[in-house]
């Protein structure tokens, strides 16, 4: 068995796809590209693939990760090219890399994600509200439960919030916990802040896994790599 890690973007109207729709889109593209997929066992065999961290509907992303198991070895460049011939530009594959099939799936390793929310225009009230959020010991939000709404304290899942005033726009970097251990959602942070007249645009810049000296992306970049770049 051979495992490959696919890095792709999610732009424009394709941000409105649900996780299940995104999964179906990639399965169709892989099949049309003639990729030799490994299938699960049972009465309804499915291709063995997993996304690093499902993305909420409406959020664009610079860099998403998908791992897929194949029955035969393929050249990374060939696999990238054949997939891009079957996918729309808004879901373009940026990179394909071999991955260790015996290592834990990337989905089990992801513990954090970095989001960028753009508020237009920037207002001083935004800074004051963000300072209150950062200083709070408890931040409870309501989430739908199985039978009723439940209240969750998301403060432990907020690792860092950084606001920049860039040419009249407020650019809020949110480094939040995500994964199997729980997390905070970008929308929950935004709902605690003053809302501008325009819709707040949200983009996920990358996901992060634990590294020897802190959190890093699956490709080895640190958090400072993203916060220092213009967006």
Task: Provide structural commentary.
- 21% of the residues lie in helices and 35% in strands.
- With 231 residues, the chain is of the alpha+beta class.
- The chain folds into 2 domains: 107 residues, Alpha-Beta Plaits, CATH 3.30.70.580; 117 residues, Alpha-Beta Plaits (2-Layer Sandwich), CATH 3.30.70.
- Strands 1, 2, 3, 4, 5, 8, 9, 10 and 11 form a 9-stranded mixed sheet that branches.
- Strand 6 and strand 7 form a beta hairpin.
- The longest helix has 14 residues.
The number of domains: 2
Order of helices and strands: EHEEHEHEHEEEEHEEH
Average pLDDT score: 90
Q: Looking at CATH, which topology of the largest domain would you report? A: Alpha-Beta Plaits
**Poorly predicted spans:** none
Helix content: 10-25%
- What is the CA-based Rg, rounded? 19 Å
Q: Tally of extended strands?
A: 11
> What is the CATH domain class of the largest domain?
Alpha Beta
Largest sheet: 9 strands, mixed
Write the layout of secondary structure elements.
Elements: E1 2-10, H1 19-32, E2 49-51, E3 60-70, H2 76-84, E4 93-99, H3 106-109, E5 112-119, H4 124-135, E6 140-144, E7 149-153, E8 158-166, E9 169-177, H5 186-190, E10 201-211, E11 214-216, H6 223-227
Parallel strand pairs: 3-10
Antiparallel strand pairs: 1-3, 1-4, 2-3, 5-9, 5-10, 6-7, 8-9, 10-11
């Amino acid at each position: 068995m051979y495992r490959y890690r696919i890095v792709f973007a999610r732009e424009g109207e394709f941000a409105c796809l649900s996780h299940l729709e995104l999964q179906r889109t990639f399965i169709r593209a892989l099949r049309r590209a003639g990729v030799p997929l490994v299938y699960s066992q049972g009465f309804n065999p499915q291709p063995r693939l997993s996304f690093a961290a499902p993305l909420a509907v409406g959020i664009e992303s610079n860099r998403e990760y998908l791992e897929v198991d194949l029955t035969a070895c393929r050249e990374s460049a060939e696999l990238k090219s054949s997939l891009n011939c079957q996918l729309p530009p808004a879901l373009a594959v940026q990179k394909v890399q071999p991955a260790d099939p015996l290592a834990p799936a990337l989905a089990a390793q992801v513990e954090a994600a970095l989001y960028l929310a753009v508020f237009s225009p920037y207002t001083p009230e935004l800074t004051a509200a963000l300072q209150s959020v950062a200083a709070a010991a408890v931040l409870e939000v309501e989430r739908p439960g199985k039978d009723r709404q439940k209240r969750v304290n998301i403060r432990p899942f907020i690792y860092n919030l950084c606001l920049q005033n860039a040419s009249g726009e407020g650019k809020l970097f949110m480094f939040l916990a995500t994964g199997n251990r729980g997390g905070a959602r970008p929308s929950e942070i935004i709902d605690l802040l003053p809302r501008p007249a325009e819709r707040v645009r949200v983009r996920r810049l990358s996901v992060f896994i634990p590294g020897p000296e802190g959190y890093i992306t699956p490709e080895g970049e640190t958090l400072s790599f993203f916060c220092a770049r213009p967006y």
